[in-house]
Amino acid sequence: MSLGTVNVLVTAPLDEASLQRIRAVGSRVKVTDVSELLRAEGKGDANAARKLDTLLAEAEVIYGFRLPEDLVRRAPRLRWVQVMSAGVDRFLEDEEFRKSKVVLTNVSGIHAVPIGEFVICLMLMFTKGAPLSFQLKQQRKWERFLPTVLRDKTVGIVGLGSIGREVARLSKAFGMRVLAMRRSARATGRARYVDLLLPPDRLPQLLAQSDFVVLALPLTMETRGLIGERELRTMKRSAYLINIARGEIVDEPALVRALEEGWIAGAGLDVFATEPLPPDSRLWELPNVIFSPHIAGGMEDYVLRATEIFCENLKRYLSGKRLLNVVDKRRGY
Predict the structure, then answer these.
(1) Is cis: bond before 276, omega within 30 of 0?
(2) Interatomic CA distance for residues 132 and 77, integer angstroms
(3) What is the domain partition of the chain in residue ranges?
(4) Can you give the pTM of this predicted structure?
(5) pLDDT of the residue at 312
(6) H or E stretch including 214?
(7) Catalytic amino acids?
(8) What is the mean pLDDT of residues 267-273?
(9) pLDDT tens by residue, 125-137
């Protein structure tokens, strides 16, 4: 527990109301918005970098979407970083930070509702033939076709964290059968809203039985490239892959082949191996792909909700209590 002034650097461009909310947590909290300095440093402004160095030297807590380069060396007093995202893979690419004693917390759980709805949206778009409807409209053609329903279809959820659980809950509301894989599962079983819970070594069973495979797990050393050619060929030819996790979990060239050659029926993608998606990617042209620019977790009050989590954690930090959403930097989540 810190007893003196707690210097908090905010690296995201928050509005004044959010900054005041942070300051109101305690009289010992000193909040400094460094978002403009961080942006300027990224553009090569040496003067901004020097000013940021001075502030980082005294920083104890950092809150934001981005972290400064060479953070551990520049911030020797840093004890805790609260990021405004749930995924932390890009922060842990900094080996020095990953191995440091600086505590890392995220906003795990904040995305469950928007991403859960997004997944259902994608499944409905495929079952109702939305891509075909858009195509016919562009071609000014009136051709009736037969849509289908989600009821009695099987969804396989890979990763049963807060997002996976929300997808399971919503899927049950549509009368779907729900399979799920969880890393900590040691044997087959059941869970709330899940008809069959599987351990990781039963992934092929989930893939083979699912009409929709939803990837909802963090990017780690173990999950990078988890879905490759073998896994895609294990899926039904009538099945759809939905990825709202991280692009690197899927072997993207293999996915393109699967979509072009009909190993699977289609894919709903919010994330990609390279973002922004390169202009020469074949995914742009495929009619059986629906994709969005990594926005599935967005909502109008995102910053407010993230700041509420940070303020609660800041209260805990000041009083010496255990923080919420502490990341195991070794595991990556």
Answers:
(1) yes
(2) 57
(3) 6-109+300-319, 112-291
(4) 0.92
(5) 98
(6) strand 212-215
(7) 246, 275, 294
(8) 98
(9) 999 999 999 999 9
In this chain, the answer to whether the domains covering 6-109+300-319 and 112-291 adopt an identical fold is: yes
Question: How many C-beta neighbours within 10 Å does residue 127 have?
Answer: 18
Show Cβ contacts of residue 98 under 8 Å, excluding neighbours closer than 6 positions.
Answer: 92, 329, 330
Please report where in the chains the tokens 């009538």 appear, as a residue: 238
Q: Does domain 112-291 have CATH number 3.30.70.2860?
A: no
And the tokens for 54? 């001075």
Over residues 62-76, the pLDDT tens digits come to: 999 999 999 999 999
- What is the Cα gyration radius of the chain? 22
Q: Quick one: how many helices (H) and strands (E) in the chain?
A: 12, 13
Give CA separation, 258 vs 113, 123, 284, 287, in Å.
30, 19, 15, 13
Residue 94: CB atoms within 10 Å: 15
Mean pLDDT of 143-171: 98
Q: Which residues pair with 191 in a beta bridge?
A: 194
In the block, which residue shows the tokens 């502030």? 55
pLDDT digits (tens, 9 = 90+) for 249-261: 999 999 999 999 9
Whether CATH 2.40.30.10 fits 6-109+300-319 = no
Q: Where are the beta strands (DSSP E) in 239-332?
A: 240-243, 266-269, 289-291
